[in-house]
Amino acid sequence: MKWHILIGFLTAGAAVVLLGIIALNEPVRMESFSRSYHSRQIEEGARIFENNCRPCHGPQGEGSPLAPALNTSSLFNGERLTAVQFNGTLEDYVKGVVSSGRPVPSEGANYPQRMPTWSQEFGGPMRPDQIESVVAFVLNWEERALAAAEPTPVTGEPMMGTDIQIELPPGDAERGRALADGTLGCTVCHSLTPVGPAWAASGDQPGLTERAALRVEQADYAGEAGTPEQYLIESVADPNAYLVPGFTANVMPVNFADRITLQQMADLMAYMLSFR
Fold it and tell me: I need a surface site. Which of 7, 88, 131, 152 has the fewest CB within 10 A?
């Protein structure tokens, strides 16, 4: 009988020690679980963003003529919250905008489309966990967005300007693709959505290169270009010089002439001429 009591005491003691070890390791285990869950949440948010948000906000959230940038320092350093007089946290702000949409643009903005409602709570298609995933993905840009805000060294490279007859340096189509998909956001309007004329050939419509050659020969062409290359430069540097029928003025940014260098224009040109 005494042996039974001793075994009981030893078993209870072992259980207490085991529970103590588990309790000591619980914070580490929970932290690891939280990191893993957050990572999966960001991955899911990236998938949802790609399918639903990219056409307006750009492939990497850099913004477009359709919607403001999200991967930008102004969202994370408090500037945007101050501008809209929002006193809550950034997470609450992003969650609120994603959930209920933005039927009226922010003051001073002139985007042609309105932010739709996404949360089921407000009549949208997304579950609460999907909204949380999108928010986690957007907030994941903070470190990179703030780092990108560091002053860019002045290179002294000549800017494009508005002279469509200027001689361009040799261009690189792959660098042009990177500009179109990323920094300049051309893909958003000319590929992912029909906000601007499509660059790729489709049906009976030839690609951009052939259309540019035909455009300068049209009787209703009102621009200054005499060659396809000049027309493409004009379409970037002075987009309102000639409006393709069915498209409106001032949707495409009118300040690219001051934003891009001659080399960037040459690279973009090389990429644009690949659409035949």
Answer: 152
* Type and span of the H or E element at 177: helix 173-178
Beta carbons of 66 and 195 less than 8 angstroms apart: yes
Task: Note whether 36 and 135 are same-domain residues.
Answer: yes
What would the mean pLDDT of 30-34 be, rounded to a whole number?
61
d(CA 232, CA 237): 9
Query: Considering the domain boundaries, does residue 124 fall inside one?
Result: yes
Looking at the fold, whether 137 and 182 belong to one and the same domain comes out as no
The conformation of residue 102, written as its DSSP 8-state character, comes to B
* Cα 67–chain centre separation: 9
Contact call for residues 146 and 73 (beta carbons, < 8 A): yes
Give the number of domains in the chain. 2
What's the one-letter identity of residue 163?
D
CB 117 within 8 A of CB 123: yes
Angle among Cα 73, 76, 78 to the nearest 5 degrees reads 105
* Residue 159, both tokens: 């800017």
Q: Detail the DSSP E strand segments found in 1-62.
A: none
Domain that holds residue 194: 173-272
Partners of 126 in beta bridges: 119
pLDDT in tens, 52-76: 998 888 878 888 777 888 988 889 9
Per-residue pLDDT tens digits for 117-167: 999 999 999 999 999 999 999 999 888 888 776 554 555 788 899 999 999
CATH number of the domain enclosing 196: 1.10.760.10
Q: What is the residue-averaged pLDDT of the chain?
A: 84
Tokens at 180, concatenated = 């179109």
